[in-house]
Design brief:
The complex is a heterodimer. By secondary structure, chain A is of the alpha/beta class. Helix content of chain A is 38%, strand content 18%. Chain A has a five-stranded mixed sheet with strand order 3-2-1-4-5, with helices on both faces. Chain B contains eight helices and no strands. The chains are: A alpha/beta, B mainly alpha.
């Protein structure tokens, strides 16, 4: 039986140096939850545990992460490994895992005129005004990135996933594991 | 196939309003955010007075705030409606309210739900081996 993409519950995760940002969608228009989780020590184990808590709470149909194997990804090794482990854990838990390349995110938001992460974040605030309070000030070149940006990256990943599913027609059933962790067959 | 709704959407609506758990606790006349957190995690079901207070705060009906619980209650009630009607039909009884019931929403909806309830539903969300709690 096919799942309509509007009925999908999607958990998008975007790791950052001090934890990860997440966004939970029920269909592309409904943002159910969003936020950041702090992880300071034993990052991989604690991050996986906290992601597991989110999975238990929201029972998502799909988990979306950034595709770190894609050529446009500039993620560090720790994040690459964490992303792989998230997808593996999703597979073990019979949750579909999808990796979305960063380039696809930029393509999704190209129509809004957003060419930067901050541009995408402001476009997302227009679509989801409830995110306004979490939008950090624009980063200066000498500043490090605010951890709150990972919320917007996660929301952007989720929406990019919905766009890809909509273009494909309908979503695949949740138990279809054929392309898990292998978005580029 | 439709994804089951969450038990409640209290956290979603709270965040949409930009309120903290402590602020909601103040509005609900609770002593701290802990109880609000338990409500949001479905660790505790609020009493009727609190549910009405939530309706006032979020300006949403309880069936939307507690969508998953409402859906389950609706399914179970419609199943019982179906059972009652078939029992009455077997006894060839037709009390005056039965006609109303058959022509009104619940019965027709119960018939629709009949197929839906036969679908296997997986509620064993706690068995997630991949995200198993680490052993400390």
């Amino acid at each position: 039986m096919e799942t309509r993409y509007r009925d999908l519950r999607v958990l998008a995760i975007d790791p950052h140096p001090r934890g990860f940002g997440y966004a939970v969608f029920e269909g592309p228009l409904r943002l159910v939850d969003w936020g950041t989780k702090d992880v300071r020590q034993d990052k991989e184990r604690v991050a996986l545990h906290k992601i597991g808590e989110l999975v238990r709470r929201y029972l998502p149909t799909v988990i979306v992460v950034e595709d770190c194997t894609h050529g446009t990804s500039r993620r560090r090794t720790r994040v690459r490994q964490l992303t792989e482990k998230i997808l593996a854990a999703a597979r073990e838990s019979a949750v579909e895992g999808r990796a979305v390349p960063r380039a696809a995110v930029y393509r999704t938001f190209a129509g809004t005129g957003a060419g930067t992460k901050y541009g995408i974040a402001t476009a997302l605030v227009r679509a989801f005004p409830e995110l306004m309070v979490r939008l950090p000030p624009k980063r200066k070149p000498w500043q490090t990135e605010d951890s709150r940006m990972s919320i917007f990256d996660a929301v952007a990943l989720g929406l990019t996933y919905f766009r890809s599913v909509r273009r494909a027609g309908t979503a695949r059933p949740p138990d279809a594991q054929s392309r898990i962790a292998n978005p580029h067959p | 196939m439709q994804t089951d709704k969450l038990d409640n959407y209290l956290r979603t609506y709270r965040k949409k309003l930009g309120l903290t758990q402590r602020e909601v606790a103040f509005l609900l006349r609770c002593h701290g955010g802990a109880k609000v957190s338990r409500y949001e995690r479905s660790g505790r079901i609020p009493d009727l007075k609190t549910i009405f207070a939530y309706e006032v705060i979020f300006q949403k009906p309880a069936r939307e705030l507690f969508a998953g619980i409402y859906d389950r209650a609706e399914r179970e009630t419609l199943r019982k409606v179906r059972q009652l009607v078939s029992r009455l039909r077997k006894r060839q009884e037709s009390p005056s309210w039965l006609g109303r019931l058959l022509t009104s929403g619940p019965w027709s909806k119960a018939e629709r739900m009949n197929c839906a309830t036969r679908r296997s539903r997986t509620d064993d969300g706690n068995t997630l081996p991949g995200f198993a709690r680490p052993r400390d």
